[in-house]
């Protein structure tokens, strides 16, 4: 569905989401895995796997920290796949008409002042500098 208008805010292109059942099942399965990983990470923090409680060797502590870091990495990767599937399958693709900004609009100057002005001579130079540095300078 596309609109003919080109004014600001008009919808230029609208494609509805696919909403596939396979994606929904995938999101549910990834969510179950996510809950399991979060539970494992929480149990590991409570049990003190990464803090060295109950360990006698430094190697065990390093391995425990690496394991907890791996579980945390798996949590965020799984979450990213959930969000990727949701965005691709369940959100519509909408393109709206936006206002195009010119270079001089970003500088807050008028279009006719784009080429700049000449630097003043003598005493006017100090006055011009004061106005540029102190925008709220009063006469």
Describe the structure.
With 139 residues, this protein is mainly alpha-helical. The chain has a domain at 10-97. It has four helices and two strands. The chain has helices at residues 21-47, 58-90, 103-106, 123-133, and strands at 11-15, 93-96. Strands 1-2 form a two-stranded antiparallel sheet. Helix 1 (21-47) runs antiparallel to helix 2. The longest helix has 33 residues, at 58-90. It is flat. The mean pLDDT is 76. It holds the Pfam family DUF7318. The chain crosses the membrane at residues 21-46, 66-86. InterPro entries: DUF7318 (IPR055742).
Summed up, what is this model?
The chain crosses the membrane at residues 21-46, 66-86. The chain is mainly alpha-helical and 139 residues long.
Mind summarizing the main beta sheet? 2 strands, antiparallel
DSSP strand content? 5-15%
Content-based structural category: mainly alpha
Q: What is the average of the pLDDT values?
A: 76
Poorly predicted runs are none
Give the neighbour order of strands across the main sheet.
1-2
How much helical structure, as a percent, in the residues? Answer: 40-55%
Radius of gyration equals: 30 Å
Question: Cα distance, first to last residue?
Answer: 58 Å
Task: Encode the helix/strand succession as letters.
Answer: EHHEHH
Transmembrane segments: 21-46, 66-86
Pfam families: DUF7318
InterPro entries: DUF7318
Keywords: Membrane, Transmembrane, Transmembrane helix
């Amino acid at each position: 569905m596309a609109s003919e208008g080109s004014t600001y805010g008009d919808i230029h292109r609208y494609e509805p989401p696919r909403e596939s059942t396979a994606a929904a099942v995938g999101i549910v399965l990834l969510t179950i895995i996510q809950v399991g990983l979060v539970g494992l990470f929480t149990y590991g923090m409570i049990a003190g796997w990464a803090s060295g409680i109950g360990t006698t060797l430094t190697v065990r502590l390093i391995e425990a920290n690496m394991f907890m870091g791996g579980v945390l990495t798996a949590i965020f990767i799984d979450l990213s796949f959930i969000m990727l599937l949701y965005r691709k399958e369940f959100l519509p693709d909408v393109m709206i008409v936006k206002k195009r900004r010119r270079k001089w609009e970003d500088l807050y100057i008028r279009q006719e002042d784009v080429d700049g002005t000449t630097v003043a001579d003598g005493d006017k130079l100090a006055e011009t500098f004061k106005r540029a540095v102190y925008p709220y300078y009063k006469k």
